[in-house]
Amino acid sequence: MKLSACLNQQSPEGEKSCLNSELWHACAGPLVSLPSIGSHVVYFPQGHSEQVAVSTNKEVDAQMPNYQSLPAQLVCQLHNVTMHADIETDEVYAQMTLQPLNAQEQKEVSFLPADMGAASKQPTNYFCKTLTASDTSTHGGFSVPRRAAEKVFPPLDFSQQPPAQELIARDLHNNEWKFRHIFRGQPKRHLLTTGWSVFVSAKRLVAGDSVLFIWNEKNQLLLGIRRANRPQTVMPSSVLSSDSMHLGLLAAAAHAAATNSRFTIFYNPRASPSEFVIPLAKYIKAVHHTRVSVGMRFRMLFETEESSVRRYMGTITGISDSDPVRWPNSHWRSVKVGWDESTAGERQPRVSLWEIEPLTTFPMYPSPFPLRLKRPWPSGLSSYAGMKIDDMGLN
Amino acid sequence: MKLSACLNQQSPEGEKSCLNSELWHACAGPLVSLPSIGSHVVYFPQGHSEQVAVSTNKEVDAQMPNYQSLPAQLVCQLHNVTMHADIETDEVYAQMTLQPLNAQEQKEVSFLPADMGAASKQPTNYFCKTLTASDTSTHGGFSVPRRAAEKVFPPLDFSQQPPAQELIARDLHNNEWKFRHIFRGQPKRHLLTTGWSVFVSAKRLVAGDSVLFIWNEKNQLLLGIRRANRPQTVMPSSVLSSDSMHLGLLAAAAHAAATNSRFTIFYNPRASPSEFVIPLAKYIKAVHHTRVSVGMRFRMLFETEESSVRRYMGTITGISDSDPVRWPNSHWRSVKVGWDESTAGERQPRVSLWEIEPLTTFPMYPSPFPLRLKRPWPSGLSSYAGMKIDDMGLN
DNA sequence: GTGTCGGCCGTCTGCCGACAA
DNA sequence: TTGTCGGCAGACGGCCGACAC
Q: Residues of the signal sequence (chains A, B) (predicted)?
C-alpha cells in the first residue's frame, strides 16, 4: 500500500511536509485501512452521510430530497489518497479522490487479491497509554510503563546515576518535542519530566486521552495522541447547515456518477461509525461469495481501549434495508444483529456484510434464507449482472 | 427588528440561554444588519458561495456543475433569524431560515419602508480597544482608555485610596467574567488587574485582537471580542470537501426553490465579503430606482479598525456580469469600480448596486448608459415583470 | 494619556522520593 | 509495577509606580 501522504499538497514533495504513514495509522487505530491508490473501491453515499451526521451532530432531515439517480453504491477507481491531521486537534482523516466507473469500465474491471484491504498492521515497537490524572497534572511528569520504555525508548546508560537522556519525538505535523527521560525513584521507574507539561498543554490533553510512542525502523521516535471519546466535541459548523452538507455530498456523488468525473471526499476514521469506501474485492467477496442467513452466528472485530483488537460475537437477527425509503436495495448495514455482550447500545444494531465473519462457512449452494440472490446488484449497477463473478478467483 | 436570539433553540426561551442582540451586533460590526423576521429578502447563492470559498479558503472549482434551474437571486420570506457565536472562537454568525416565494406570492408581495434594513446602530455606551503587547502579556493587566472607562464603567468611589471596584461582565455565551477595576499609578490611569489574565488566556487573545465593553440600559456590563484578521485562520474542514460544500448550498437552494420549501443558511458577517441576504425593498430600490452609469462617482461605507464607519469614494468603471458563465444576468457584484484610495487591492474591485451611494442622483428618466433596462429582472423571476414598481412608494 | 519597564512578592510549576494499591 | 502525595526550590504571574513618548 503506497500512499501519498503530504499535508500540503501544493508544496513540493519534501520530506518535511509529509505525514508519517505509520504514525497516522497508529492514531487511526488497528482496524482502519485505506484502500490502495489506483485500486477499485465501492463508495457508499449512505455511509458518508452517516459520517456527516456524526460530525455535525445532526441526523439527516426527513424532508431531504432523494437523489433517485444516485445508486446506493458507486464502483469507483481510487485516484488518490492523502493522509491528514487537523492542525488544531491532531484528529486524523484521509482525503480520497474517487472516479465512478462507466458501464464499459465496470465490465472490464479486474482486481487483485491484494486489493482486499487488510487492516493495517500496527507498528511493532510502539506503546499507547491512557493518561492518568497524575500524568496530566501540573504537579509532575509522565509515568512511563516499564515494558513500554524498554521496548520503544533508546536504552539508558545505567552507569549514570540516575540514568537519564533527552528524547526527541515528532508528531503528525512533524513538530519536534523534547523530553527528559529519567529512571529514578524508589522503587525505580521511567519518567518523562522536563518538556512533558509543554506537550500536554499544547495538545490540550486531559486525563483519559491517550498518547502513543513509536520507535520506527529509521530509529525515529514518533509521538501521536488519541483523544478520549468526549461527547459533543463537534461544533454544528457555522459554515454550512447540516442539511446542505448532506445535500452536498449527495450532489457531488450524483454529479460525478453522471459524468464519470472525479470527486473528493474526506474519511474521518475516528468519527465515522463504519468505513464507507470499501475495496471492491472485499465487497464482492462479502456480498456474492458469502451466504448469510437469519440465526447465523458471526464474529466482528472491535478496537479495545488499549488500542488493540478483540472479537465480539453475535447472531444475525434479520436482513433488510436499513433505510428502505432513501436507500432501497442497499447493502449498507443490511444485516440486523444481536450481540452476545450488549453494553447499553454500545455496538451498532446493524452491520454490513463485509464487516463480519460468519462462523459457519457455507459451501456454494443455496442457503435456507438466501440474501437477495435474485438481485445480486442493485438496479443502478446492472452492468455488473454480466460479470462472471465465479471467475474472479476469490474465495 | 425583533430577533429570536437563543443559542440553544431546543431549550425553553429562558433568559440565560439567549444571546444578547446588542452584543452580537457590536461584535459583528457597525455595517452588519440582519433583515427582520417575516420580511421579504433576496438571497444570492453566488454571495453565499463566496462565503464558503472564504471559509474553506478555496475558490470554487471551474469543473463544478451549474444549477441551470437555480436563478442568481431568490426572493424569499425570512422565517427565522437566530444569532449565534462559535463556542470555541466566539466568532459571530447568524442562522436564517428562508422560504422561496412562488410565482403567486411574488405577485402579491408587499413590503414596508421599514424593511430597508438600515445598518444596526451601535450601542451608545460602549468602547472597543485593540489590545497592545502589554495588555496581553502575563506581566500585567489591561490599560483602560480614560474616556472609555468614564463612559462605560460604573463610576468609582474616589473617596477610597486608591479607588477600585469589582466589575462583572458577561460575554456572548452569557459566561461571567470578573475584573478588578482600579484607578492608580502616576499619572493616574484606569486598569483592569485581577481576572484579566484569565480572560485573555481563556479567549486566547493576542496583541492586535480587540475587546469591547458595553454598558446597556439594564445596567449590565457586556463583553465581546473581535479577533484581528489573521491570515489562514480557517481550516479546510475535514468534514466535507469544499467542492461538495459549494454543491450543497446550491442544491439546497435549488431544491427549496423548486418545491417552495424552507432551507437554512449560515451568514458569517466577519467572513463574508458581502451580505448575501438583502432586504427586498433595498434590492428593488437599488436595482430599479437608481440609475448608474460608467464614469459615475459614488461613496461606499467601510468599517475602520476602530470599529467605526468611514466612506470611501470611487468611480464606476464598468457594468457587467461578475461571472457570466455560472451566473449570467446576476446583479451580484455587477458594478466594476475603481477606488480613489487604493491600497493594494484592499477593497473589492466589484460591488453590488445596493452597497453604494451614487453621488449624483438622477431623476427618473433614462440615463445615458442605462443598466439593463430591457431586463429589469432575470428570467427566473419573470413573475415580477408585472409589478407596478412605481406604486411601491419607495424613493 | 498610555505603553512598557524594573522591582518585588506570592503563587504555582515541576522535580524529588515516600508510600500504598 | 505505578498512581498519588508531601516536601521543596526556583520560575513565573501579576501588582506597583517610574518614566518616556
A: none
